[in-house]
Design a protein that fits this description.
The structure holds two protein chains of two kinds.
Chain A (H helix, E strand, L loop, with lengths): L5 E8 L3 H11 L14 E2 L5 E9 L1 H4 L20 H9 L1 E3 L14 E5 L3 H7 L3 E2 L5
Parallel strand pairs in A: 4-5
Antiparallel strand pairs in A: 1-3, 1-5, 2-3, 2-6
Chain B lengths: L3 H9 L16 E4 L7 E2 L17 E2 L8 E4 L19 E4 L6 E4 L4 E5 L4 E5 L8 E13 L2 E4 L6 E3 L3 E8 L5 E5 L4 E13 L4 E2 L8 E3 L5 E3 L7 E5 L3 E10 L3 E10 L2 E5 L6 E4 L5 H15 L2
Antiparallel strand pairs in B: 1-22, 2-3, 3-15, 4-14, 5-8, 6-7, 7-14, 8-13, 9-12, 9-14, 10-11, 10-13, 16-17, 18-21, 19-20, 19-22
Classes of the chains: A alpha+beta, B mainly beta.
């Protein structure tokens, strides 16, 4: 059975992309994870822009929520990661809940859906893809 | 390659179509087969095999060239020749080499000692950037720290225990390096092998962009529709490319007359098999490939 038992979908406001990338580097599995969030290609009804990602993950990632990152547990690939920036991102995470009034994205929080289909979850958060002009 | 009449003859004779036949005359492209677990790895470096449904797929090997290995590119790779006792023949020293940081012949294997400063040995200009190589080596012993073998920046295979290691990696530089890792070390390494793994392999270095292997309804590569994609660096395949995939639970889809230029080619459609070849197919080939992909798609 796979160890990747969670599906995480995140919406990161444009101004928190650098911090979110530091967190992705630390909780990810590759030095390339510092480039997880690149383009703010989604927007909310107010026109605020967000970068999104969806990924499978081991349960240990979700277990970090609400906690403090431990500098002794930084993986080898993330040597040099900015722990303070990553902690800012971790502290900004708000858990998505579905239902009649699902959690909506805001520009000062990172919205995280755990074990939801990614595209419906992003839509429920109030996000739409920004269509590129031809 | 197989005229229709010939295909019928082969069918009567128990002929079994294999997509590798589409590449028999030196055609370029790729054949990805998610049902072949030996070709799937969780990481882009090819060190961790995919074993279960739901695992991410960071590297998917192309079978169009039969997973053929090229010639050995690591010189003196069993470290039996040492004209200079401080470095094996064919290799050169880099970094600091002194009484505390050195390489020595340890029973025809390389002992590398570092007090923490940067030190190692290298073969310059042995590789082609962008090509994929299978790297194998034996770590005979480790009494301190960790070591690393790499084929350019970001490709480090780090080891801290004795054992046999294998990884598949796309070279990001032209040099083969054996070095200390982050701190002091004392280890012995032997039998390094570096050989090109022919084909156009698909990979994804960023964890969250990796699709997963999914076994429902059939074994396939599942892209999440948000950010997942596999990247292949193709040569120029021209303007008459055939792209054929097995759509899970649906069947074969064959696109003709496609254009794929040289460089990055990103793919993000679910598939239970994907064949890309730089030419149009004959009627018989199309029929055979359709049947093959339908079977892979589970219909």
């Amino acid at each position: 059975m796979t160890q990747y038992t969670n599906r995480l979908t995140l919406a990161v406001p444009e101004q928190l992309i650098p911090q979110a990338n530091q967190l992705a580097l630390i909780v990810g599995e590759s030095a390339a994870d510092v480039g997880t969030f690149t383009t703010a290609g989604w927007q909310d009804a107010q026109g605020n822009k967000y970068a999104v990602c969806s990924t499978v993950a081991k349960p240990v990632v979700a277990s970090l929520l609400g906690g403090t990152l431990n500098p002794d547990h930084i993986p080898a690939h993330a040597e040099g990661a900015d722990l303070e920036q990553a902690q800012v991102a971790l502290d900004a995470i708000v858990l998505f809940t579905p239902g009649d009034e699902p959690t909506q994205v805001t520009p000062n929080q990172i919205t995280l859906a755990i074990d939801h289909d990614p595209l419906p979850a992003l839509a429920a958060m109030g996000l739409t893809r920004i269509e590129l002009e031809e | 390659m197989f005229p229709l009449s010939r295909a019928r003859d082969l069918s009567r004779a128990g002929f079994v179509f294999n997509p590798i036949m589409l590449f028999a005359n030196g055609e370029q492209g790729a054949w990805y087969d998610p049902s072949d677990l030996s070709t799937l790895f969780k990481d882009a470096a090819g060190t961790i095999p995919v074993t279960a449904s739901g695992d991410p797929v960071g590297l998917m090997l192309d079978k169009s060239q039969g997973l053929e290995l090229g010639p050995e590119v690591a010189p003196n790779n069993e470290f039996t020749a040492w004209a200079d006792p401080s470095v094996p023949d064919g290799w050169v020293k880099f970094g600091t080499h002194n009484a505390s940081n050195f390489v020595a012949n340890n029973n025809d294997a390389v002992r590398l000692v570092s007090d923490g400063v940067f030190t190692g040995i290298v073969v310059n200009d042995g590789l082609v950037v962008g090509k994929t190589y299978e790297v194998k080596f034996d770590v005979v012993s480790v009494s301190l720290g960790t070591g690393a073998v790499l084929l350019g920046p970001g490709t480090d295979k780090i080891f801290g225990t004795a054992g046999s290691f294998r990884f598949v990696v796309k070279a990001t530089g032209t040099a083969i390096e054996i070095k200390r890792n982050a701190s002091a070390c004392d280890y012995t390494i032997d039998n390094i092998s570096v050989r090109e793994l022919k084909g156009n392999h698909a990979s994804q270095t960023t964890s969250s962009f990796r699709p997963t292997r999914n076994d429902t309804p059939v074994i396939h590569i599942d892209f999440d529709g948000v950010d997942d994609f596999h990247r292949t660096v193709f040569p120029d395949l021209g303007t008459d490319v055939t792209i054929a995939r097995a759509i899970p639970g649906v069947g074969a889809e064959i696109l003709t007359g496609q254009t794929i230029g040289a460089g990055d080619y990103d793919y993000s459609n679910d598939h239970a098999g994907l064949v890309i070849v730089n030419r149009a197919l004959t009627t018989a080939e199309t029929a055979n490939l359709t049947a093959y992909l339908d079977a892979k798609a589970g219909i």
